[in-house]
Amino acid sequence: MKIHFRPAIVVVSLLTCSCSSVAVPRGVISELKVGPSIVEVSPSFRNVFPVKNFNRNVTTTWWETESLDESESTAAKTLQSLRDANFIVFDQGFYEVLGVDDFQSNKSVETIFEFPPGPSFANRLVHDGTVYSLECNCIFFAELHPPKEGFSTDAMPWVWRVNLNESTPVVEKVYPQPQLTVGNGAFYHDGSIYWAQEGNYTNPGGIVRMDPLTLETEVVLNNFLGHRFNSPNDVVLTSDGIAFFTDGYYGFDNFNDTLKPELANGVWRWDINTGDVRQVAGAGTGIWLNPNGVALSPGEDRLYVTARGETSADAAGQRTIYQFNIQPEGSNSPPLQLAGIFAYADAGFPDGIKVDAEGRVYGGVTGGVDVFSPGGQLIGKINVARGDVAVNMQFVDDWLYIAGRTYLYRVQLGTTGVRKY
């Protein structure tokens, strides 16, 4: 299969979009505080939409809500201001995240790379598994090609690497050996990168360990007592070597490249020290279908897991982040106990998730990144370019790198990631 390749390039620009001609002045507009790049939303505006009759599809963003009244003039300026903003503030605590005083501050989201087009059989591009390695001072992430109807996805031999050793980030393709088989989520632990690879018909999915300097890989988990995993999606590891990874039906249902699943989809726990592997939350509990992203709290006592449902366009889909309490070793209790729904996304579904040093949770969704307080309150949104979807992200010090379908972004924040290197 021919691989479309673009040499390593660096593109730096401010996040922009092609907007309509509606002029949106700065200041207070219909209970919005509109600054150069930040819009603060009042509770009353958030709670009562500014037209009498309206509707919104689950695949669209808030500012694309459709007015069903004859005239849309009432909502035009307010929706335009949300559409044009780089950041939307719902709670004063989001200003601490942004590292600014108020809505009048000018802050940007940088677009640092535009991804080349995918292969002809691809329905779209997905960039996932963002992970930082101190050894190379670089970020790795995978590219996936969900196929058009009648096609199967490919196991491309490369992953993306963002080299942070230059004055500006350099984005390039690198080639793990042996290659990953549809790599997806990734996590750094004890000098190695652990990839969740979905697998395909001829290569079962599982967990692969990669040396971040040599790019040498080794399969370290690929079965549960002879059963293939369905298509492992994302993985995290505690500091003492307990891995939690998600396993959904994506390879069979969406990628058309794996055998029919023989296991319930769910969350698995793997002790890399003892080799013990077991499912600790699954579809049999009635909680979800197709778990996806995973993240750990700062104290490693809570696990956040996202679920998509059948499709992200399904109105009855889950679009949910669940919270589980991790039980201490030797407690004679199940390793995970469901604490409930942590958050429900308003656009698409939370794909990749990350946690900052204060315990806030970041979810990649349609239109940008949703930021939730440690208690699950939506406190703000980081917008990406019009029409793009934020899939996953990675903290490097106080920079948040955001991998979208079309572009790679970064924004400097007033906080850091939960991981300490």
UniProtKB/TrEMBL annotation:
SMP-30/Gluconolactonase/LRE-like region domain location: 202-391
Q: Which Gene3D superfamilies is this protein grouped with? A: TolB, C-terminal domain
Signal peptide coordinates: 1-23
Asked if Hydrolase is a keyword of the record, the answer is no
What keywords are annotated for this sequence in UniProt? Signal
- Going by the entry's taxonomy, the superkingdom of the source organism is recorded as Eukaryota
Q: What is this protein called?
A: Calcium-dependent phosphotriesterase
